[in-house]
Amino acid sequence: MSTDRPARTEQVTTLTLRRMAAARERIVVLTAYDHAFARLLDEAGVDVLLVGDSLGMVVQGEPTTLTVTLDHMVYHTQLVARAARRAMVVADMPFLSYQTGPVDALRSAGRLVQEGRAQAVKLEGGRSVLPQVQAIVDAGVPVMGHLGLTPQSVHQFGSYRTRGTDPAERARILTDASALEEAGAFSIVLEKIPADLAAEVTQRLSIPTIGIGAGPHCAGQVLVVHDLLGLFDAFRPRFVRRYRELGAEIRAAVSEYAADVRAGTFPGPDETAP
Ligand code: KIV
């Protein structure tokens, strides 16, 4: 296994993202949860590595993101941050690490930056979490918002359906987006909302929007890396493009290995330590 590391190129910051959005250069965001994947994604030129609490579903095998703890997020953020040379690392704030108030929110964000080495944090919600956003931003930590489908509220919504399809919810998302920008958020994820609503939010804000299932008009796009690579089969959201079927590749490779071991053809004469 190679231990060579690529030369450090200029690191992506909130300023870089703002400049990219102003120049209409689309921002590439992917989730990452461990060192091996983070290194590959960073080398491939991903701009932002999001240590998402989707961790709960695609890595931990849970049915929702609600069981992810702050300790889990700190640990996985450390693994990702250790690999990132160029990409900016954003850590998700898990359920109950900020909803209880600005002091808790600031403590939690502080741990993700100080112990996890994240450069920014992301939290879900609009006007209901503004005091938290303000407290974190005032402490010098950049905050990414998250509107539309917010998976930490799945039990309140009752499903993972598209948000912002009726006029009242649409108006709420537009107002929340402006409020987050005013509170100092540097960017907002828009998840599973109609493309025309995402376009309107993007056009109204001066901070970049990052879409997932929100159409092509956002300043950037994010996907869960396990979805993109065909490593997660529990469900397949319509908005995901699966660029590879690595799950099938891995099953095939491991079956070949098992067959070789069982047949006694592995290891061969050149595959034994000298
Ligand atoms: O947890 C996550 O991976 C996310 C992205 C899907 C935006 O929040």
- Order of SSEs, N→C? HEHEHHEHEHEHHEHEEHH
Order of strands in the sheet with the most strands? 1-2-3-4-5-6-7-8
What is the name of the CATH superfamily of the largest domain? Phosphoenolpyruvate-binding domains
Radius of gyration: 20 Å
Q: Beta-strand level of the residues, as a percent range? A: 5-15%
- Write down the domain tally: 2
Helical content (DSSP H or I, runs of 4+): 40-55%
Number of strands: 8
Rounded mean pLDDT is 96
At the first level of CATH, the class of the largest domain is: Alpha Beta
Cα end-to-end separation = 18 Å
- What's the architecture of the largest domain, going by CATH? Alpha-Beta Barrel
CATH-defined fold name of the largest domain: TIM Barrel
Compute the number of helices: 11
Structure classification: alpha/beta
Ions, cofactors and other bound molecules? 3-methyl-2-oxobutanoic acid
Assign an overall shape: globular
Structure description:
The longest helix is centred in the C-terminal third of the chain and has 18 residues, at 246-263. The chain has eleven helices and eight strands. With 274 residues, it is α/β, with parallel strands linked by helices. Helix content is 41%, strand content 13%. It is globular. Strands 1-2-3-4-5-6-7-8 form an eight-stranded parallel beta barrel, surrounded by seven helices. The model is unreliable at 1-6 (pLDDT under 50). It starts with 13 loop residues before the first helix and ends in an 11-residue tail after the last helix. The protein folds into two domains: 14-243, Phosphoenolpyruvate-binding domains (TIM Barrel, Alpha-Beta Barrel), CATH 3.20.20; 247-274, no CATH class. The protein binds 3-methyl-2-oxobutanoic acid (KIV). The site of 3-methyl-2-oxobutanoic acid has 11 residues, from β6.
